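Batch 3, record 17
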Amino acid sequence: MNPKIRLRNFILLGSISVLFVVLPAVLISVGVIDGYTAQIFTLAGINAIMAISVNIISGITGQLSLGQAGFMAVGAYSCIWFSQVALMPLPVAVIAGGLLAAFIGFLIGFPTLKLSGDYLAIVTLGFGEILRVIFVNLKGITGGANGKRFTTILAARADIAWVVIIGILVMVVILLQNFLRSTYGRAIFSVREDEIAANSNGISVFRYKMTGFVIAAFVAGIGGAIYAPFIGFVKPDLSSFNRSVDYLIYVVLGGMGSITGSILAAFILTYLQEFLRFLQEYRLLFYPVILILVMLFRPQGLLGMKELSFTGLMDKLTAKRKPENG
Amino acid sequence: MDRYRSSIVDTLVIFIQQLINGLSLGSIYALIALGYTMVYGIVMLINFAHGDVLMVGAYTGFYILYALGPSPLALALAFLASMILCAVVGMTIERLAYRPLRSAPRLNSLITAIAVSLILQNGARVLPFVGPNPRQYPTMQTVNISVGPFSISNIQIVVLLVSVILMLILNYIITWTRTGKAMRAVSFDFKAASLMGISSNRIIAFTFALGSVLAAAGGILFATAYPQIDPTMGAMPGLKAFVAAVLGGIGSIPGAMLGGYILGVAETMTKGFISSQYADAISFSILIIILLVKPTGIMGQKVRVKV
Amino acid sequence: MAKSRKDASKGCRISDVLLTAEDISIVFGGLRAVSNFSCELKQGELVGLIGPNGAGKTTVFNMLSGVYTPTEGTICITDAHGRTHNVHRKKPFQLSKIGIARTFQNIRLFGSLSVLDNVLIAMHSQRGVNPFDVLFRTGRFYRDEERLRSKAMEMLALFRIDAKAGELARNLPYGEQRKLEIVRALATNPLLLLLDEPAAGMNPQETSELMELIGFIRKNFNLTILLIEHDMKLVMGICERLIVLDYGRVIAAGPPQEIRDNPAVIKAYLGEEAMIDA
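Prediction for the assembled complex:
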């Protein structure tokens, strides 16, 4: 890619990112966007991070994981611990929470990813639920079934919360895209496409499944680690299977393999959730029915494996100005 | 010295008592594990919805027992009705949700299976005559029979008897009937079986029906032993039964039975010697250990992928 | 050479031959799919592995490429530095790095990835970056990507499918998919190329082109080829020597002319549609 285009892309994406991060925060702080709406969309940002986590392991690496909520809970509780007990500053506690989740992902993935993909689904399902039982029982650290309070500035100031959380979302997306658009990303895609062919062409299938799983666990841990200071309260059911399924639904609807699809689906569905409150119990029925319908009639979801690309859009717009390019 | 001796005796008593309890619980896990293993053996799918078929069976039994009172006749009727209903449910699920996706990537089938499970659970919650709240299951009076320091209840005896009878019938079907042999053929090689004139679709439907019948029975037995039912009651036993199937060797019918009993005993031993709170965690630990040590399970064989 | 049975993990002695398979057998749940298969492949040879359907040819490939582990026997390969490795217990991706590449009977491309990406993936072990370079897009990342891309495009151009570099692999016509699979295998810089029925499904015109292609590969790449094929015209036309398998055993080996007249071979093929005439 020629350096001029590289620079143009950098400026384009940089400005758009800054816009997404800063503009709404300004609007929130001056009151144009009210606190309630701000909270919904910030929560959507966290849901987007979780959806990305599911997408990394299930959409991109092609291995179904039903326990990303478990990693989120690890990140959440450990962030509180790192912050309150180990007295780390919040940013450090957040990263530490992510790293701990990644480590646990490594421990779980190691025996499981050597086997066929079905086993990962079951192990991760059990993982989330067992974690919930453990969190309920470790009352001293986690506050038991009643949960744990964690008041921070993020819970108090909606504009700062937006900047931090969306900022983290943007960073995750950028780093992830950088990773995926490289030989490492190609290696992971090959594992998804055909393990046997990948293996025969020099790709260590186990290593790259682990890579995908550990990165996904890290991202989920980060999601949890900023959820805790933002919501201000963590309960053991954060790690439950039902929440993992919620995040899976975002990814299936957005398109397994599409990062922008997951973000889009997370924002749309989180927003809709508020309107769907009146459905109450039926909402729990609504989602799995949609899931089956998508699986049966449009398994690629909204975007399939494609991404919404600002640089792609820019390329198309600038190409139009040169008629000889057709 | 006496204190030492008596504590050994105490431990032995608890051990044997929990063994008895474990065999009873294990029978239920075995029944459900059989459904998982048969379906996995034939279509390579983890039927996440299987545990919820158990719930449907339990509720069907509930309504019959509620209406007729917990007499032995009503219980027999409950078994019959729930088995029939669950067989239909199982076959319907296979036809509508799994068959269309047979040629799709495995991930899609797994996701669909989860969705079916959630539909069953949440569907039951919103049904007006079911509802999300737990119900008390009408059971017969518990009569404890003491044999020395050990006791076994009439319910446990019923559970053991019914399970063993059903497992024997299943064994007969698989080994001696044409349909059973066809099932084994299809699970061995789908295409070859079709070439031999076996209608694989029908055999698969039959397998699902068979598994669901066992789950129905398991559901009623489970509800009889633990008489509180709610729409999510199938999730935990379902998960544990799946672990049992993996433990015994997924795809192996004797393995599912063996795994069920081992898991049941392991769970009751944990309740007896460690704590009942961690009894749930024991099945997960067993899963991880088995995956580390012998992922194909006790009686499983390595499946070679045809390249 | 005295050898204990079932000692498939025995060490390999230094050899000037590229690959030796000594008495390899494999048993699948009571069925002996391959028995006592032995062969020696010298550098630069083009050898054909033939036999009726179900004779165990792909099974032999799977053992040579590490997909299956033989129950008995030893397979040894000599790498580019002259070191010998025991193929037993090595995973396919490790063997790929040592220098064994293969194609598959039913074509296994990375369907939803582009033609270029398919080749780039095979070059993953030749990368010159680390995760830091990738995450933070250093200059080294761009240079390495450029290096890999131009090398991959060169290979695609050599085989005249560079025009379709951006297309999804699954959208290619059948013949080009087969070609791409071979190009991908070549991109791993192999010493030994295992081709599993490369002419399957091809008409005579395409088969001739394939024969030219294989000849082209022999001329321009320094490697050994072992090929499974049913098309006798191709086999007789390009192979230097043949190994014939039937029911998992070697029933004959030698130059194509000898094999053609070998009664045991003719008997094995009787009833087959394959015409044994050149």
